[in-house]
Amino acid sequence: MVDRLANSEANTRRISIVENCFGAAGQPLTIPGRVLIGEGVLTKLCRKKPKARQFFLFNDILVYGNIVIQKKKYNKQHIIPLENVTIDSIQDEGDLRNGWLIKTPTKSFAVYAATATEKSEWMNHINKCVSDLLSKSGKTPSNDHAAVWVPDSEATVCMRCQKAKFTPVNRRHHCRKCGFVVCGPCSEKRFLLPSQSSKPVRICDFCYDLLSTGEMTACQSARSDSYSQSPKSSLNDVSDDDDDEDSSD
Question: According to its record, how does it sit in the membrane (predicted)?
Fold first, then answer.
């Protein structure tokens, strides 16, 4: 079905409309063989609070952006190659329902659909696209995923020292390896994480010690597994967004 649509006029027209909605600031999306599978509004759990984002699923990439005028104008385009994506369901808790994690080597975050049916459709389509891509390339699924950031609102004190209280002066920072909200003194070190940046990035003292001794892989793997198994941790550890203010911390 996807192959039949690849070179159709209807598919080309749909992709062109998406390109126009992002304007000159967005990257071109039309390439041979690319098919627009579907689109819709999902709630993305950002650093500060949940926010509505427009998502577009293609057969090889996932694109999303801020909604300026629904169906007419979007900005801050993000493009995620699907062959690097894995997804995990999140259990419902409170007002956050019908969610799942989107995990990649460069960034990971949670999104929520309006209904359980919509969630199921999104997850099924994403998994199918990823499976098809890996099958064609012969590659194996990536096990290297960036940590999802704990939302600022979940931490009133540093999650490492458990002492420093956050204030307008004592700001929150995020460890790029574990995603915890930490104070400045607990995250003064930098470490090169090639999948996230070409320059050394902020990490907490705990992760620095583990990375320096080569013990980080097992720890990170166990923490990642907990997202899809524990209702509480899966909602406490799910945010990151470089279109949020102060996200560089």
Answer: Peripheral membrane protein
d(CA 130, CA 127) in angstroms, rounded, equals 5
3-state secondary structure (DSSP) of residue 12: helix
Instruction: Report d(CA 187, CA 208) in Å as an integer.
Output: 9
Q: Give the count of beta carbons closer than 10 Å to the beta carbon of residue 30.
A: 12
Closest CA to 75 of 240, 243, 248: 243
pLDDT digits (tens, 9 = 90+) for 123-154: 999 999 999 999 998 888 878 899 999 999 89
* pTM above threshold 0.70: yes
Among residues 228, 239, 231, which one has the least CA distance to residue 94? Answer: 231
pLDDT tens for residues 159-201? Answer: 999 999 999 999 999 999 999 999 999 999 999 999 899 999 9
- Residue tagged 């990649």 (tokens): 104
Is the separation of the CB atoms in 51 and 43 below 8 Å?
A: yes
**Torsion (CA) 45, 151, 105, 91 in degrees, nearest 10:** -60
Taking the C-alpha atoms of residue 101 and residue 70, their distance in angstroms, rounded to an integer, is 24
Residue 141 CA to residue 227 CA, distance in Å, equals 18
- Element holding 17 (H helix, E strand): helix 9-22
